[in-house]
């Protein structure tokens, strides 16, 4: 009897998983496999925070599969070779997966599909992780969009994203290997994805529940209230005003189709404007993936190539560590960087301020920040992380103009007026009043141990604008 392999990647869920659903509909044995691929050319190894998340997500997925009569097989190595070996072990006649959009991943998938055809194995891919696949959204001339607003307008003018499929109640038993027993896999612990000596993950564990159940709980909590005030709440770091679905979407623990249609069900007639704003954030995620699809080197090359000549400065080790550890002397930047280190996540408004401070006030190359976020964010993915850093730096598509320099003091006064977010992550500021908490250098005796500002805001702003002007002048 021919068997089916379902190859999971960034789609660690049972709900609305087209590849898994197609296999479950067949009477044949199904082998569900995840391959930790750190060997194929071009594959970027996961950062430390993402490795922590992956461990717990795979653990949760394995338990869900076992509850439905299946199991999750874990293998490690170059994906193409691992799939070929597994197909030979199980006598697979079909291979299903959900599509990926980065160039190295697409090259691997294309190679596996070509190999499968030569072996007489049916290889089928499905749309699962983007509402609008990159090649389906095109300008009138047939090219990719470079500006978000017309991109999203075109998406919304097209067909409604498909309805999500419910998870299978039961899955066929895994295929027997050549030994007559299910093929052997790795123990998850043997991958050593979790931090050791020291274990810095306590804050992540307190903040998150990786896995499909955690993803759906996040969505339900968001729909129960914050979504209806999202337009305002998303800008306030001191309140729970965002969905916090980003890491769940990054690992595919929840489908964007499920999120989209849950909003439809919650607001069947007249959705508040805030819902449209949230949908546009889903759209920005789609736009970033189109950018990566068209520009495979998005994490290493300026989208706007004129920035190749920008006079970035190399910060000293002490200066870079001050930014990374939240010791710049500017409370909003420091609160954000400490939130990142403690929880693996940072509020988006604060991300923009912290990133702007690095690339404009410190004049550091945006790639320095992108690499740090890649290592410390639980939601860092190959498209959104570099696209958003380039947006802040001014070197990206539809980018914030370089001369738009976030003032961290103005930003915190506007969006955290009472200082609750600042005090929550920078306890040295606990005794400052609501006015001084934004500018602690005005009363340094009340904030012992808190550093002086790393750079002057006005002087560093002028330096950044002068550097940008030299770029414009060639």
From TrEMBL:
Annotated site, Electron transfer via tryptophanyl radical, chain positions: 312, 366, 389
Cofactor remark: Binds 1 FAD per subunit.
Source organism, top-level taxon: Bacteria
Record bears the keyword Lyase: yes
Entry annotated with the keyword tRNA processing: no
Catalytic reaction equation(s): cyclobutadipyrimidine (in DNA) = 2 pyrimidine residues (in DNA)
Enzyme Commission code(s) on record: 4.1.99.3
CC cofactor: FAD; (6R)-5,10-methylene-5,6,7,8-tetrahydrofolate
Positions of the Photolyase/cryptochrome alpha/beta domain: 2-131
Region annotation Disordered: where it falls in the sequence: 163-188
GO molecular function annotation: deoxyribodipyrimidine photo-lyase activity; DNA binding; FAD binding
Keyword annotations of the record: Chromophore, FAD, Flavoprotein, Lyase
Sequence positions that bind FAD: 230, 242-246, 278, 379-381
InterPro entries: Crypto/Photolyase_FAD-like_sf, Crypto/Photolyase_N_sf, Cryptochr/Photolyase_FAD-bd, Cryptochrome/DNA_photolyase_1, DNA_photolyase_1_CS_C, DNA_photolyase_N, Rossmann-like_a/b/a_fold
PANTHER family per the UniProt record, alphabetical: CRYPTOCHROME, CRYPTOCHROME CIRCADIAN CLOCK 5 ISOFORM X1
Protein family per UniProt: Belongs to the DNA photolyase family.
Name of the protein: Deoxyribodipyrimidine photo-lyase
Taxon lineage: Bacteria, Bacillati, Actinomycetota, Actinomycetes, Micrococcales
């Amino acid at each position: 009897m021919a068997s089916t392999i379902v190859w999971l990647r960034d789609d660690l869920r049972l709900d609305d998983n087209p590849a898994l659903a197609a296999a479950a509909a067949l009477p044949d044995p199904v082998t569900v496999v995840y391959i930790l691929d750190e060997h194929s050319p071009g594959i970027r190894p996961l950062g430390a925070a993402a490795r922590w998340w992956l461990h717990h997500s795979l653990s949760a997925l394995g338990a869900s599969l076992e509850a439905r009569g299946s199991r999750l097989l874990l293998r490690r190595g170059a994906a193409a070779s691992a799939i070929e070996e597994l197909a030979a072990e199980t006598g697979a006649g079909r291979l299903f997966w959900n599509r990926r959009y980065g160039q190295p991943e697409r090259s691997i998938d294309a190679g596996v599909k070509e190999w499968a055809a030569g072996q007489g194995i049916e290889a089928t891919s499905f749309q699962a992780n983007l509402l609008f696949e990159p090649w389906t959204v095109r300008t009138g001339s047939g090219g990719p969009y470079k500006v978000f607003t017309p991109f999203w307008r075109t998406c919304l003018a097209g067909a409604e994203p498909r309805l999500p499929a419910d998870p299978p109640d039961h899955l066929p038993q895994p295929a027997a290997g050549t030994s007559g027993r299910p093929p052997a896999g790795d123990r998850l612990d043997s991958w050593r994805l979790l931090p050791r000596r020291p274990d810095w993950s306590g804050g992540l564990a307190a903040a998150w529940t990786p896995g499909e159940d955690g993803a759906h709980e996040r969505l339900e909590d968001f729909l129960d209230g914050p979504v209806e005030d999202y337009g305002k709440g998303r800008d306030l770091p001191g309140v729970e005003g965002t969905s916090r679905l980003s890491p769940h979407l990054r690992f595919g623990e929840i489908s964007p189709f499920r999120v989209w249609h849950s909003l439809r069900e919650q607001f069947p007639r007249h959705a508040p404007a805030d819902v449209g704003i949230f949908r546009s954030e889903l759209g920005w995620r789609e736009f970033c993936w189109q950018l990566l699809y068209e520009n495979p080197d998005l994490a290493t090359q300026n989208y706007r190539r004129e920035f190749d000549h920008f006079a970035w400065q190399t910060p000293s080790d002490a200066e870079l560590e001050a930014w990374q550890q939240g010791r710049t002397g500017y409370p909003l930047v420091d609160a954000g960087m400490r939130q990142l280190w403690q929880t693996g996540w940072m509020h988006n408004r604060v991300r923009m301020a912290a990133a702007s401070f690095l690339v404009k006030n410190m004049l550091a190359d945006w790639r320095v920040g992108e690499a740090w976020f890649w290592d410390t964010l639980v939601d860092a993915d190959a498209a959104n992380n570099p696209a958003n850093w380039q947006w802040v730096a001014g070197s990206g598509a539809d980018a914030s103009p370089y001369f738009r320099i976030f003032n961290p003091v103005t930003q915190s006064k506007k969006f955290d007026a009472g200082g609750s977010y600042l005090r929550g992550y920078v306890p040295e500021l606990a005794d400052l009043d609501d006015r001084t908490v934004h500018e602690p250098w005005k009363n340094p005796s009340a904030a012992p141990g808190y550093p002086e500002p790393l750079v002057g805001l006005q002087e560093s702003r002028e330096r950044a604008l002068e550097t940008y002007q030299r770029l414009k002048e060639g």
